[in-house]
Amino acid sequence: MTDTRTAYSRWTRRPVIYLPVLRRGQFIGYLWASADQHAAGFERRLEVAGDDLDCLLVWDARLNEAAAQGRTPFAAIQRWIGAAEDSAAGAVPAGFPPNNAASLTDLWNRLNPDGPALDERAAEAPTRGGHYNRG
User: Fold this and answer.
1) I need a labelling partner for 74 at 20 to 30 A (CA). Which of 18, 33, 64, 126 fits?
2) Which tops the pLDDT comparison, 80 or 134?
3) 78-125 confidence digits (pLDDT tens)
């Protein structure tokens, strides 16, 4: 039996590669992938999209589809560079090179410097609906 992973972990302590996501010209968060683990996700900028779960759910569905197709986490996020904007999820604009962060916690703190700390347990634990709790 093969070990086919059909979903990415939504948590890592390792370095991440990230891309900005804009919706109607406003920065709403980062799409990220682990540099060396099977992990990827979307983190919201709470100041702008804190109550907006729609953007989170769209990115989670897109990433789940990419994982099921066997894409690496980096390939999963890279494919969205320059794609048409989604009304809920926004878009990764063309011309933005991937950036690096030391960890997911570091990325979260860049997004939400005055917000709550990223709770590792909450990032890993699915809610009753099967979606991840991201503060």
Assistant:
1) 126
2) 80
3) 999 999 999 999 999 999 899 999 999 999 999 999 888 877 545 544
Mean pLDDT computed over 22-39:
96
In contact, 12 and 34? CB cutoff 8 Å: yes
Do residues 104 and 11 make contact, with C-beta atoms less than 8 angstroms apart? yes
CB distance 125 to 133 below 8 Å? yes
What does the H/E/C string look like for 21-73? EEECCEEEEEEEEECCCCEEEEEECHHHHCCCHHHHHHHHHHHHHHHHCCCCH
> Cα(first)–Cα(last) distance of the chain, in Å?
37
Looking only at the bridges linking them, the beta strands covering 99-101 and 40-44 are unpaired
SS3 107: helix
Region of 82 please: left (phi>0), alpha (psi -120 to 50) or beta: left
